[in-house]
Amino acid sequence: MQILQNKKIVLGITGGIAAYKTPELVRRLKDKGADVRVVMTEGAKAFITPLTLQAVSANSVSDSLLDTQAELAMGHIELAKWADLILIAPATADTIARISNGMANDLLTTICLATSAPIAIAPAMNQQMWHAQVTQENITRLSNRQVNIFGPGSGEQACGDIGMGRMLDVSELVELTCQFFSKNKTPDVQKAQQKLIEQPCIGQHWVITAGPTREAIDPVRYISNHSSGKMGYAIAAAALQAGAKVTLISGPVTISPPENCDLIQVESAQNMHEKALEHGKNATVFVACAAVADYRVANIAEQKIKKSAETMQLNLIKNPDIVADVAALTNKPFTVGFAAETQDIEHYALGKLKRKNLDMIAANNVAIAGQGFNSENNALTVFYTDGKVEIPLASKQNVAQRLVSLIQQTYLKQVN
Ligand code: PMT
């Protein structure tokens, strides 16, 4: 028997861009045996027509509380009683707010109020709207009233933002609906699913390099750069927050590492290279944010070099390219490089992406004051197979969260 056989689902569609996915959702629910009746808000009809939904559901579509004909066919109270589940997808911030306040000023909210059936909502909105305190309060309120919250997912949004707020994919919504009806599993599966949505990197191991390297000249002098480690440490914190196990390979910095990461302190590019290969071979994702010295001194003096001649020459040799060597591993992790550029950013970043065989590269313009090396803020242009994404100037913590989310989404696409 199909898992949704004889299950009666009222699908409420509200006015969000994700409404375009609902004909597919109806079809997939019906494939599993469900009988689906669609209720649309006025906003939904701006994105998709009732006729389309009628055709795919093979049932008339309800869209008005005050339509005498529709009320005759199957009135709102009847629909509310008919349903085994009311699934609202996409659920806009407005609909969520109205349901959470017990309003009944359109057909869908009236059905929600009039039903004794369980309700599930699949939020879909801009990431800022999702994070708004009032939306979060509404979600908590609904969740406390046993309303099932399916999602949202995170990633690139229709408006160009990156973050939480995307409606889950149709396959995920169907899966959650099936799990909802398979009674034995419901609580655990839902808990696990919710956890995965909040922490999408659970089960992943991220290895991140950060900070500068120091290339010794003699026992008291070295060659280095201005990297403070802030960008790499912020990425480590964001990956931890997203549920990943994090190994942070750090050059010498003065900031504290995020709690719960596995910190490996190194000095030189060669030390960093050795640790990166050791840990990178078992990693899911490798992010090379460190500012690694391209060259080291060929012969490090054993004693402090004494001042004598007017000029002095240091013989430098090339350091190994850490990120390129990680990307060349047999089971290479999803490998992300950084590009610190002062000009012609796209050209140089794309060159590094290709030459080092990376999956993604995050370019920053380090010639602009107030971003890049040793500053609190940064801005990135991220290049990868799907194109490019701008992460505008913001605190390194904020930029890191967006980057981690983009990496996670892109990595998932690659493995699925
Ligand atoms: O540490 P902060 O003060 O917060 O500053 C952040 C940052 C500016 C250092 C960071 O955002 C950044 O841009 N890191 C990369 C710096 C760099 O070395 O860029 P690059 O274009 O020279 O190198 C390209 C990539 O190759 C980088 O991922 C780098 O880590 C890697 N590389 C470079 C040389 C080498 N021998 N091995 C490497 O793995």
Secondary structure: elements and pairs:
Blueprint (H helix, E strand, L loop, with lengths): L7 E6 L8 H10 L3 E6 L9 H8 L10 H7 L1 H7 L2 E7 L1 H8 L6 H8 L4 E5 L3 H5 L1 H12 L3 E2 L3 E4 L5 E5 L3 H12 L4 H13 L6 E6 L4 E4 L2 E3 L6 H12 L3 E6 L11 E4 L3 H12 L4 E4 L6 E3 L18 E3 L3 H6 L6 E8 L3 H11 L4 E6 L11 E8 L2 E9 H20 L1
Parallel strand pairs: 1-2, 1-3, 3-4, 4-5, 8-11, 8-13, 11-12, 13-16, 16-17
Antiparallel strand pairs: 6-7, 9-10, 14-15, 17-18, 18-19
Give an overview in words.
The chain is 36% helix and 24% strand. The protein has helices at 22-31, 50-57, 68-74, 76-82, 93-100, 107-114, 127-131, 133-144, 170-181, 186-198, 230-241, 269-280, 322-327, 345-355, 396-415; strands at residues 8-13, 35-40, 85-91, 119-123, 148-149, 153-156, 162-166, 205-210, 215-218, 221-223, 245-250, 262-265, 285-288, 295-297, 316-318, 334-341, 360-365, 377-384, 387-395. The protein has 416 residues and is of the alpha/beta class. A hairpin with a 5-residue loop joins strand 6 (153-156) and strand 7 (162-166). The chain starts with 7 loop residues before the first strand and ends with a helix. The protein has an 8-stranded mixed β-sheet, sandwiched between helices. A 5-stranded parallel β-sheet has the order 2-1-3-4-5, sandwiched between helices. The protein folds into 2 domains: 8-198, Rossmann fold (3-Layer(aba) Sandwich), CATH 3.40.50; 205-415, CoaB-like (Rossmann fold, 3-Layer(aba) Sandwich). Helix 1 runs parallel beside helix 2. Bound molecules: ligand PMT. Ligand PMT is lined by residues 209, 211, 227-232, 269, 288-292, 294, 319, 321-323, 337-340, 352, 364, 366, 372-374.
